[in-house]
Fold GTP cyclohydrolase 1.
Amino acid sequence: MIDRKRAEAAVRELLLAVGENPDREGLRETPQRVARMYEEIFAGLHRDPADDVKIFVEDENDDMILIKDIPFYSVCEHHLLPFFGVAHVCYIPKGGRVLGLSKVARIVDGFAKRPQLQERLTSQIANFIMEQADPLGVAVVVEAEHLCMTMRGIRKPGARTQTSALRGAFKTNAKTRAEALALITKGALR
Ligand SMILES: Nc1nc2c(ncn2[C@@H]2O[C@H](COP(=O)(O)OP(=O)(O)OP(=O)(O)O)[C@@H](O)[C@H]2O)c(=O)[nH]1
Ligand SMILES: [Zn+2]
C-alpha cells in the first residue's frame, strides 16, 4: 500500500522546497489531498493485474478481436507528469479462449496506473495478455501525449508518440500484422 503519512510529509516538504507556505489557507489540506490522489493514480502498483482477467471459451473462435481507443492516463516516471492517450489491443484467440472485453480495459488501466514509460506500458500489456490468455498473437498500439514534452522542456504541444508491441502471429506473419495495423490506424470501426 501507499504510505499516506509519508506521502503527505513529502508533499509538505516539496511545497517548502519550491518556496511555498504549506500552512496558508489554500494549501493546508493539499498534502493529504495529494497523498490520496497518489493512491488513486498509482493504484496499479498494488494490484495484481491477474485479478482483472476473465476468460471465456467461445466455440473455437480464432478470429481477430480489436478493442480500440481505450483511454488511459499514466504518469511519466522521468518527470512525474501525466501522459495520456489511447491504447488499441488486438488479439487472435487460441482454442476459443477470449478475454472479457472490459477486462482488457482493466488490464490497460492496471499497467497505466504506475510511474511508467510508454514503451514499457505497451509491452507489459502485450506480454501479460500472452501469458494469461495464451492467444495466437497480440498487437498493442499506444498513442499518447506527454505533458513533460508539452507544458515544459521542449514544449511541443500536439506531439504524439506511438508505440507498438507485436507478439505471436503479429510478429511472425506480415499479412496478419498488416491487417491489424490497418484496422487500428485507418479507424475502420469509427
Ligand atoms: N522513451 C521514452 N522517453 C520518455 C518517456 N516519457 C518521458 N520521456 C523522455 O525522457 C527523457 C528524460 O531526459 P533527461 O535529459 O533525463 O531529462 P530532462 O532534462 O528533463 O529532458 P527534457 O525533457 O529534454 O528537458 C526526455 O527526453 C523525455 O521526453 C517515455 O514514456 N518513453
Ligand atoms: Zn517525462
Notes: The longest helix spans residues 118-133. The helical segments are 4-17, 30-41, 101-112, 118-133, 147-150, 169-172, 174-186. The chain is about 40% helix and 25% strand.
